[in-house]
Design a protein that fits this description.
The protein is an all-alpha fold. The protein has helices at about 5-10, 15-100.
Length: about 110
């Protein structure tokens, strides 16, 4: 069969078929685009929030390290304060032991 015989068997107007196809695409492509936009918007927003929370995780880790260092410094300072208190008590004890030289008591 040659091409002319095939065209005679199929009573289809190819030009009309392409016109219908492209005419429907003119309407369907914007509809598909809007549908995809509204369907993908929550996914994109959740990915952006996940990326943002990753940055927050780093900030939280850094803040936890800073707080840990501050706690260590406070513990060290409280240890120094205890040492100074003991030193003052010892000096007062030694002063009481030696006492002021009282010339009238001799």
């Amino acid at each position: 069969m040659n091409a002319l015989a095939i065209l005679q068997l199929l009573p289809i107007d190819v030009t009309a078929l392409f016109g219908i196809f492209f005419g429907s695409m003119v309407v369907l492509i914007p509809i598909a685009g809007l549908t995809a936009r509204f369907a993908l918007k929550p996914v994109v927003e959740s990915l952006a929030r996940a990326k943002e929370s990753g940055a927050r995780t780093e900030e939280i880790a850094m803040l936890e390290r800073r707080i840990a260092l501050l706690e260590q410094e406070v513990q060290m300072l409280s240890g120094i304060r205890d040492d100074v208190t003991r030193l003052v008590e010892e000096l007062e004890f030694q002063r009481k032991l030696t006492g002021p030289a009282n010339p009238t008591s001799r």
